[in-house]
Amino acid sequence: MQFIETRGNDGEKSTSVTFSEAILSPSASYGGLYVPESLPALDETFLTKHLSSHYKTLALDFLLAFDIDIEKETIEEALKRYDAFDEPSNPVPLVGIEDDCFVSELYHGQTRAFKDMALQPFGYILSKLAQKRGENYLIMAATSGDTGPATLETFKNQENIKVTCLYPNGGTSDVQKLQMVTEDAKNLKVIGVEGNFDDTQHALKELLSSEDFKAELEERGIKLTAANSVNFGRIIFQIIYHIHSYLEMVRNSSIKMGEKIYLVVPSGNFGNALGAYYAKKAGLPIEKILIASNINNILTDWLTTGSYDLTNRELVLTESPAMDILKSSNIERVMFDKFGGARTKELMLELEVNGKYQLSSEELSSLQEDFSANFSDDTEGKIVIAEYAKKGYIMDPHTATCIKAYRELREKKLPTVIYSTAEWTKFSSTVAKALGHEVKDDMEALTWVSENADVSVPSMVSGLFSKPINHTVVVDKNSIKGEMLNFL
Ligand SMILES: *Cc1c(COP(=O)(O)O)cnc(C)c1O
Questions:
Q1: Considering only CA atoms, which of 381, 296, 360, 371 is closest in space to residue 331?
Q2: Which of ligand 1's atoms lies nearest the C-alpha of 272?
Q3: What share of the chain is helix, strand, coil (3-state, %, to 5)?
């Protein structure tokens, strides 16, 4: 399988690359992204064959069908990372909350958010590739709270990879911050930045485009790569759990093989939703993918009006911070698939120059064949959390945005899977507030919610509070470069 570019080719880069090349150097011509030339078929034969497969077996067969240039043994080793999830026999459990609504819980890995689903096996593969080539890579992450911990966790103690992780000091939950600053591997560096996530991300972008900095890295023999969801190495693992969730619905007799379901995806950078789109396109029986957002509802606008407009918006900080995103990277891959490279390049250029673009009505209709979208604000989210807590199910504020989409966007009464992208323990203060109790910090929230809602706190979360803090550096954005070079 070869990978091609969403904005066409500039005559300098190769017109198509292997999977390894696409994940080691994820930036394509004109600032575009890599996408697979085609997808393996998820037909009924494939699905039926995997009706009683283990998650890892399904994943292995899917990846082999993708025909990527990674050895089978390496893929198998990478997939063993799922053995460290809560229930190795089923890393992604499906839980019913209504007769026709099931939650697919993607958060049972080490850092309690769905980022582990892709980053865990991806981290292993990337590090193996770097070792095989005898190359050293630096991954620079900026995080609003979930990507950082998951990136550090997957690369800790992995050879030929170093990770620096910037977080906005005061801009994450206590648990998220502790997950980062208690990491103790030598190849990881965590730096707090004075400012909000935007400032942090901006500082990182400046550094990434600095010729000085690049020269310093080159001198040290270090190459740069990215582990965010512009990297297709993450997307490929985000197709698999949609197949798994469908098979779970067949296994629990909610549907018969071949019947269609809705998927509800709480979305920010659209990596999770893109995985669902590829699964649908490859043949998984999905009626539609329902996109849930918070008040930063640019995806709702895009999918209901065809307008993508950054000029009349400011990012609003919400209680579902992993979806506080205005520039959603992965919709570019959907547009390439539907409208082709020339049009995608034109639209993305318009966005860069004018801060907005408008799709034609035909283009919008084409998107609406696969997607529908709405959003919930924080108040609606907390009402949902309280409502389901009463029925005995505790969900986090990202997952809560799915409920309005489930209630209002379905055109048919088909069974529905909603995705839970984080465990409540990661956003316990918000959950406590939703249940009517103001707390001073996460420690108090975890205890209160766990006692009052009768849910347990996993040891990897409760244990954080007694771990030594290994990263105490908090700097202003002008000192980031120095800190990094010191570390390298
Ligand atoms: C990253 C994240 C999201 C958004 O996922 P995308 O793939 O970026 O759309 C939603 N919820 C949580 C908890 C996350 O960590």
A1: 371
A2: 7
A3: 50, 15, 35
- The whole-number pLDDT of residue 14 equals 96
What is the position in ligand 1's atom list of the atom closest to the CA of 399? 11
Percentage of the chain exceeding pLDDT 70: 100
Q: Which H or E run contains 486?
A: helix 480-487
Cα–ligand 1 centroid distance for 272 (angstroms): 7
As given in the structure block, the two tokens for residue 258 are 């071949």
Structure tokens at 226: 């990215």
- Model pTM score: 0.97
List domains and CATH numbers for the chain. Answer: 90-112+233-457 (3.40.50.1100)
What is the rounded distance in angstroms from the CA atom of residue 116 to the CA atom of residue 152? Answer: 11
CB atoms within 10 A of CB 482: 10
pLDDT tens, 3-22? 999 999 999 999 999 999 99
Q: What is the CA radius of gyration of the chain?
A: 21
Nearest CA to ligand 1 atom 14: 322
Residues lower than pLDDT 70 in the chain: none
Nearby residues of 478 by Cβ (< 8 Å), 6 or more positions away: none
Residues with CB under 6 Å of ligand 1 are 113-115, 146, 229, 266-273, 322-323, 398, 421-422
How many whole angstroms from 235 Cα to the centroid of ligand 1?
12
- Ligand 1 pocket test target in 153, 320, 325, 421 with most atoms within 8 Å of CB: 421
Q: Which helix (H) or strand (E) holds 102?
A: strand 101-105
Report which ligand 1 atom has the smallest distance to the Cα of 266.
Answer: 10
Sign of dihedral through CA atoms 188, 193, 196, 200?
negative
What is the rounded distance in angstroms from the CA atom of residue 197 to the CA atom of residue 114? Answer: 20
